[in-house]
Write a structure and sequence with these properties.
The chain is built from 2 helices and 10 strands; from the N terminus they run H-H-E-E-E-E-E-E-E-E-E-E. It is mainly beta. Strand 1 and strand 2 form a beta hairpin. It starts with a helix and ends with a strand.
C-alpha cells in the first residue's frame, strides 16, 4: 500500500515536469569554419510554439525524481479524439447531460527504460472548451464502454520500458465540442493538445 501511495505521489510530481531528451542535435557541432545550422523544427514543435498546444499523436516527455530519490520519467500522449462515436453502448441516463453525445479520448503513457514504475489513471485528463471551462474524465468503466479502457480508480502501474494505452469515455451536451485536451496532474502545469474540429 505504501509503495502504491508513493508511486501515486511520484506520478503527480513527475507527470508534467520539464522534458528531457538526448538527441544528435543536442551535441555541439564540429568545428568546420562554417556557422552551425539549427535543425528544422518538427511540425508538432512548430504547432506547439504557435498555439501552446501539441498536435494529437505528439508525446510530451517528462522527468523527475521519485519520492525514494530514484529517477521517474516517461512520455504522455493524447493519441486521438472522436466525437460523436458509436462505440459507446450506454444509456443516456449514464451521462451527466440532458441531451448527451458520447466521445472517446485515446491516450498512452510510456515509462522510460531507467524509470521507476509510473502510476497512471484517468483523473488528470480533461476536455477544455472555448468558454474556458473544463470537463474532467468521468471514470466510466465496465460494460458498454469501449475497450481497452484506460485505468480508473486507483489506476495501474506502468513498469520501466513499457507502455499502457487505453480509451477514456466522455459524455458532452449535444452541440458542444472541446477545443483542447488537457493532462493536468495536481500541482503541475497542464499539457495541452489541440482537439480536432468537427
Amino acid at each position: 500500500m505504501h509503495a502504491r501511495r508513493a508511486a501515486c505521489a511520484a506520478l503527480l510530481i513527475a507527470a508534467t515536469a520539464t522534458a528531457c531528451s538526448s538527441s544528435s542535435h543536442d551535441k555541439a557541432p564540429a568545428a568546420t569554419g562554417q556557422p552551425a545550422k539549427a535543425p528544422a523544427p518538427s511540425a508538432a514543435a512548430t504547432h506547439k510554439a504557435n498555439t501552446g498546444q501539441l498536435k494529437l499523436g505528439a508525446g510530451h516527455h517528462w522527468t523527475d525524481t521519485d519520492t525514494d530519490g530514484s529517477h521517474i520519467g516517461g512520455t504522455t500522449t493524447a493519441i486521438s479524439y472522436t466525437q460523436p462515436t458509436t462505440e459507446v453502448d450506454l444509456p443516456n441516463e449514464a451521462a451527466d447531460f440532458k441531451n448527451p453525445v458520447w466521445a472517446i479520448l485515446e491516450v498512452k503513457v510510456c515509462a522510460d527504460q531507467d524509470s521507476s514504475s509510473v502510476l497512471v489513471a484517468q483523473d488528470p485528463w480533461a476536455l477544455g472548451f472555448p468558454d474556458d471551462t473544463r470537463l474532467q474524465a468521468p471514470s466510466l468503466n465496465g460494460s458498454g464502454v469501449p475497450k481497452p479502457e484506460y485505468p480508473t480508480g486507483d489506476g495501474a502501474l506502468v513498469k520501466a520500458g513499457t507502455c499502457l494505452r487505453g480509451k477514456i469515455t466522455f459524455s458532452l451536451e449535444k452541440g458542444t465540442r472541446p477545443n483542447q485536451i488537457i493532462y493536468a496532474p495536481e500541482g503541475k502545469d497542464p499539457v495541452e493538445w489541440a482537439a480536432p474540429k468537427a
